[in-house]
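ASSEMBLY PREDICTION REQUEST
Request ID: AP-0331
Submitted by: J.K., bench scientist
Number of chains: two
Total residues: 586
Priority: normal
Notes: Please return the full assembly, not individual chains.
Input sequences:
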Amino acid sequence: MIVIFILSGFTFAQITDIVGGINKLNALSMSSAYTIWDSTPSDKVDEIMANEEDYLDRMKSMFYQAQKSDAYFVWGYQAGFTDVSDILVEEKIANEKFFSVNNFKMSEGRSFDKDDFKSSPDDVIPIIVGYNLKDIYKLNNTYDFEIGGDSVPCKGKIIGVLEYNSSYPDLSTLGHEYSLNNSYIVPLSDSFIQNNASVPDLDMGLNSMFLFSNDEAKTASLQKYFDEQDVFSYTLVPVETAVESYIDMLRPQLLYQLFISVIILTFSIIGMISSLSLIVSKNMHDYGIHILLGAREIQIYLRIVFQVFIIILAAFIPVVFLFGISIDCILVLLLGILIGAITLVYPLYKLKKCNIIDILRKYE
Amino acid sequence: MLKIQNLTKIYGNGKENRVQALNKINLTIDSGEMVALVGTSGSGKSTLLNILGLLDVQTSGDYFIDNISVKNISEKQKAILRNKKFGFVMQDFALIEKYTVRQNLEIPFVYLKEKVSKQERSKIINSLLSSLGISDKKDVYTNKLSGGQRQRVAIARALVNNPDIILADEPTGALDSKNTLETMKILSKLNQTGKTIIIVTHDSKVAKCCNKIYTMEDGMLI
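STATUS: Completed
Returned structure:
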């Protein structure tokens, strides 16, 4: 039963992840947000990557134009394992708008302020770390970092630690919540864009863009600017459209996952009902003896209910350790209670229907 | 006193499935009697005993315990009577095997309306086990006991709440002759203390230990 509860927990975690991500994205779409669709043909991509220097300035100007239009950017790289732990660290580069939209809370130190987004890799840049890195990159200490796609070396001072489980939605994975627990965040500055960003950096940045705008003319103007640069084929689409499109694209996969989950849960439930029913059946003779000695039916029912739910609670304990006190944990508990209730229907019905003599004789 | 009037018990529904286990039985058992119900298998003696012990319900007729009809009493009241008024001794002992002797004897106290302190329970249990010669088995699991010992535990458990009436369904059915004799001695002794004993048996030697013998055949007293 423990295994079944854990499997159920993972299923619920998947579902709540998707639902949570979609809700967050839909909330964004309500405030008129746009994202980038990149439909650059592969031969064009090859040409750009082979001639980066020719396209770099145009990419930078597109980036500046998007920044001026109040877009938010966040993109990242895997920074590798640290020397002192087995955490795979991720580097995130994000602009000021990213922080203001997501409103992250700090467990220690402070968040970025306006001046932090003016820093340069030649200086000591301020860095915010995710919760799991707080003992590796300690607050107010300075460390060596390599930032961006070209691993530009720089020194970074830790100014803040995010709250545990800080995250943001990523449209490219259907609103999957990207955890920042194992990330450090570098503030995106004009200096970095001007002096250190490569074409891949800027492409990743633009692909990560969310543009918040109620001004259709402004959006159209930015789109026109992108088109005129003749670099990558970026199209600004409303988040709503993008969400619908991704859902359509992933619907078969999602349905398949849900189908598999439902199958697992169904068999899990049948398995649990069987094993719990067997436990109750094994004790039927004892219940008969209790009735013989003066127990009322309701007292036996309560005894059975207690026994079943003790088993369920015991099986639930590892789930708490695995998932913590979370919505997924609560859903597993509710599932357990539901299964317990379903399990009890047949034995209680059997007990009600059986004559005590039958119980004592049949279950000798 | 127990009194039965025109008691009938029919099992099953429909014409083909009906089995008439008891057919208009009239019987009075006075306090302090030791009564045997004898008959062949299927004669209805166990059915009658089950109805007397409120483990089953008659199809028609009436049943009085101390002049009070049990026809319309609630399940709660029946449970109280089973706990306080009757003590049961069954052929298969009806003990919970995963419990010790002491734990089996504790069960009737759980359902007793008036709460008994732990010390008082212990005193009663120790006294009963001692009187039955099995006080050294108090903390032994019942599945480790012999048939004779288990039946003594069953008798002790039947006496825990000091019931007026002991109902024994084939109490010696699973015992050898030596233990049969021992069990009947115990039941006779209990009868001498004033307890009403009703024994269902097919063993004529057991029946002869009783003051009165009622023979049953095809659901009727003959």
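REVIEWER COMMENTS: The longest strand of chain B covers residues 19-29.
SIGN-OFF: pending second reviewer
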